[in-house]
Amino acid sequence: MYPLRRNRRLRTSEAIRSLVRETIISPNDFLVPLFVVEGKGVKEEIASMPNYYRYSLDLLEKEVKELWSMGLKSVLLFVKVPDALKDNAGKEALNPEGLMQRAIKTVKNACPDMLVMTDVALDPYSQYGHDGIIENGVVSNDKTNQFLAEMSLSHVKAGANFVAPSDMMDGRILSIREALETEGFTDTGIMSYSAKYASSFYGPFRDALDSAPVDMMDIPKDKKTYQMDYANRFEAIKETEMDIDEGADIVMVKPGLCYLDIVREIKNAVDVPVAVYQVSGEYAMLKAAAEKGWLNHDAVMMEQVTAIKRAGADVIASYFAKDVVKLLS
Ligand code: PBG
User: Fold this and answer.
1) Has 91 been annotated as catalytic?
2) CATH says 25-328 is which class?
C-alpha cells in the first residue's frame, strides 16, 4: 500500500513550491503610513516603534521619493499636532495652511503620481484625545459627522486622492460622500475604516501622535462607545455593508492579525477591495521579540503579511512596507 496522493511532491524544491504558491507579496500590496511633525530637519524615532519615524516636511519629501523609487506608490498621512493647537472642536484640522494640508502638498509636489490618502478623525486635534466632538460627556455622533465632512473637503482641496475616515461614527461615510459630490469632487475615493475594533494594539500609534484619550472627569476614558467590541463578528459585516451603501470605495478591517477571520468573512461578503491595517502594536510586538533574539524578524514579518493577504486583504497598510520591499529585492 502507498499513499494515493503524495502532497509532498509539490513541496520537494523551492522551484516547485514557488510554481504552485498561491499568495505572492509585491510592493503593489502596500499602503505606507507616515507620521508628520512641524519643524525642519526632524526625523524622530518613535520610542515604541523602533526604526519608525516622524518626519518634518523637508524630510517627508525625501522619504516619499525613496518610497516611490522602491515601487511603493501609496501613502497614508497622519500628523502630530502641537498641544497649543488642540481643542474640542478640532478647529486646526480645517486650517488650509495646517500641517496636514501642507503635508499633502509636499507629497504631491515631490511625487505627483503618488496616491495620497489622509486619516480623517479628530483625535490628533482633540484636547481630549477622542475621535469626535465631546458634548455633555459623550462623543456627539452627528456634530462629529458634520466636522468630518469639512475636514475631508479640506484635505481634498489640498490635493488628497482618498480620504480615510477612522472614527467609527454612524453615517459619516454618507456625510463625507455628500460633501464631496456637492463640491464636485466626484473622483475622490473614500477608504473607510469600516470594521475598526476598540483594540489595545493602538498604544504605540497614540505615543507617536500623542493622541491617547485623556484621563479626566466627565470624559470617556476609552473609545469603546464608537470603536467595535472585539468579541463581535456579525457587527463587522453590518458595519462594512453600511459603509459600502453610503459610498465607501475601499473598506478596512483593523487591526490585522487577530482579526483575520473577520477579513475572510468580509472578503467573501463584499465586492469592493478590502484593506487590512497591520497596526502599531503588531509592529512593536515583532520588533521587541526580534530585538531579544526570540523571533527571526524577516521570516516572521513575511509570514505575517502573507497571512494577511491570504486571508483576503487587497491592500495592506503596514509599518513593515519598506522592510518587506527591501527583502523582496
Ligand atoms: C485615529 C487612528 C488610530 C489608528 C489609526 N487612526 C488610533 C485610534 O483609533 O486610537 C491606529 C493605527 C495604529 O495603531 O497603527 N483615529
Assistant:
1) no
2) alpha beta
